[in-house]
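Fig. S4 source data, part A: sequence.
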Amino acid sequence: MVSGRTRRGDAGHDPDYPLEAVPRAARRSPAGLFVLLASFFFFTPTMLAGGQTSVGFRFSDYLLIALVAATVLALYAALMGVISSRTGLSTVLITKATLGRAGGKWAALLLGGTQVGWFAVTLAVLGDLIGRALSFDTTWPLVLVFGVVTATAAYMGAKGLEMLGWVAIPLLLVLCVWIAQRAISDVGGWGELMATEPITEMSVGAALTVLIGTFVSGSTQVGNWSRFARSDRGALIAIFVAVIGAQSAMYFFGGLGSAAYGEPDFVLALYEMGLVAAGAGLLLLALWTTNENTAYAFGVAGAELFSVNDKRPFVAGGAALGVVLALTGIYESLTVFLTLLGTLVPPIGGAIMGQFFLVWRGRLPRQYLTEKGGVTGVPMLRWSCLAAYLTGTVAAGLGSAFDVGIPAVQGIVVAAVAAPLFHLLLSRGRGPDTGNPSGATGTADTGSVAEAGSAEPTR
């Protein structure tokens, strides 16, 4: 929990440190971090992706593919998460340090815009399906109400998100297990479920593309929560358990709906079963927790974009914009836009990992942090990282255009490999920006980078 030493009462200071490294006093336990992450990764569109892909395989084979997809996302999220747990910086601040000041603004706009778009889509889906469950002809009042409700905990900060998660996640798990037992019984038991035959053709690569693509952009922003981890080990454990657990559950329930009832949308499958209240409850809990974390992410991104050390105005503003998008129906045209962002966002993570792990050797150079943990002294643009990001984006775009491989993963890997290569190429004739190991920093242990400099960095 956030302690009193986080300067909550200071005028203009946000206890979630949107523009600074999170000090040691404000770090959270692995259990608290797990709840934050699980709330984010319980994402109902992932269930829909599971339902759409499971119809192309025997259910037993589909589960193996789903486990591979969840593991890939967990590995990527873990690497991104360790960077933030080690430095205490959010994803947008890490991007600022790697891509430069202008690159950081671009990333804040891109990452924040992605989350506002998802917020709008989620509100629209929530209003439509809950309205259908309650037989409402008019759903715009629901969208307005949900727009306010699903941003309240985010406005309160990580503490509010954790409190919501401790209540919602257990209820969500109990509801999912109960529904799954009934669905398995309806299909004839585990044996019949595992033997369910495919009803269409789909390649393994296409299935992995869909399953991984639903949340790879979200995984890029996992640092917004892992920066609160007390150690790298705690971050790794929390991320692996939360991501593999939540994603595997979403994949399973989505596939179960298709296998048992021929309905790829698990919530609609519940309606078909006559479990309207259960379907509405599952939908509300899953989308509520996800949208709160989405609002938190665009709040943090907005704080960096406008250099304001307070995420709350941007949580409120982004939520209001999301409501407008949902009410005007613009969300219906956001699908292509969000797919495009799925190509543009993952290479950011690749460029960050390549620069941090391969160029800076796992430590952020101390000259880029102020005494309070803010990012300073970075160039306007770090051309090597920008070139790596653009190369990764091209790789992802070509993969998407020609249906080759898994575009998002290709973008990440290409950008990560390209970052040190472009660094070596562009650093010829000048001192390489590798950071001095003696001047590198892992975390802002006490809130003061200068004080932390005399001690060995904490992994």
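Fig. S4 source data, part B ends here. The mean pLDDT is 84.
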